[in-house]
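Minutes, project check-in
Item: structure for the 151-residue chain
Input as provided by the requester:
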Amino acid sequence: MLLVAGCAGGHPGTAIGHPQSAAGHPGAAAYLAIAREGNSRLEIDFDRLGGPDAANLAAARADLRDAAATEHLFDQRLAALALPAPTDAVARTLVAVNESRAKLTTEAATASTSPHRLQQYEQRLSAANAPVEQAVTTIRSQLGLPPPATS
């Protein structure tokens, strides 16, 4: 039903590299760890939302609330990382655009009064991924990590 990029960029559950590939880049291993954890949770939420919970409004709304909470937690953890100055600036941008996406995700959970109404948020949620993916790609490049597997 909905396709939302994970915290690390690309689609939830995509391979995002190994911490050893981040050797020598301050913050890279920590970034991958928080991104992996966020993506894992988002994958569960959106797999349920697009599958067994698609026609169950209460469950779908719970999936969206959990996704928003996951996005908030990722943002808090990202903001706490010690990153090189140029990467830190992009990370602050990522937090801002991801918080905007989380707000929209919460709105979709709150305002949706039917599965059809929830589906109407799909395009807006997908569009909200673009600036997140752009910031993720930049961070990964600056930390010497491979680009997201998909986008």
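Outcome recorded: Helices lie at 28-50, 57-80, 85-111, 115-119, 122-142.
No further action items on this chain.
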